Amino acid sequence: MKQTGWILLLIAFLANACAPNNVENEKNWEKYFAEYKVEGCFMLFNNSQGTFKVYNLERSQQRFLPASTFKIFNALVGLETGVIRDTSFVIPWDGVTRDMPEWNRDLSMQQAFRVSAVPYFQEVARRITKPVMQHWLDTVKFGNMKISKIDTFWLDNSLQISPDEELGFVKKLYFDQLPFHKVTMQNVRQVMLMEKKPEYELSYKTGMGFSGPKTIGWITGWIEENGHPSFFVLNIETENKSLDMRTVRMNILRNILADAGYFKGMK
């Protein structure tokens, strides 16, 4: 890419994401992707220091289907509109047996979020309705804001969002800067908390979807140590159908965060 192109890309990156004081290209993080023969990018914003570390800045500007990371947005709208009364709100199992055994039962919103139950949040989207969902997509300016079918648009490549847009989104969620009531955002942050240790708290949502022959994997969220959040987004892709995406994306996330000095309670 020509130098002027990189300058424009960097300006757009800073405007759309978190406007840090310093951006560092972490080329050495490439080894964590090469280990599994996947393409991808990783972005890490330390809020207290105001620094960005980024691997593959160019990819961070490209849009992809959000897959199940959209459950963050879906949960926000569901709670805000009253479609979901609270995080304990149960939607009964529809009786259809699916490949994920943990989906084949009645689930609360918190349970469905934790096991990433697609049918639960498809029903939430149907109850929200397409016009209301479109209103919130437009209000938040979430990705390209496109809806096809109300219960598949985040899975069928209609709705797309870039990694830096995802990072800006979760940062706004953490700081109550989205156009939802604070209790709504607090409830979603609560269900995003996946690990709570004396040294750190790790909050995130995973995602996996398909774009042609490619499998797209995501993890987006934040790690908090000593009350200091750092926001991250991982985006990877592969054409290897035998790759264990769930294991690989988590290994890459943990390896990079450990490389950056996290999990020790020292940040």
TrEMBL record:
Every Penicillin-binding protein transpeptidase domain range: 50-257
N6-carboxylysine sites (modified residues): 71
Entry keyword Membrane: no
Signal peptide extent: 1-17
Assigned keywords, A-Z: Signal
Domain of life assignment: Bacteria
GO molecular function: penicillin binding
NCBIfam families the UniProt entry points to: bla_class_D_main
Protein name in UniProt: Class D beta-lactamase
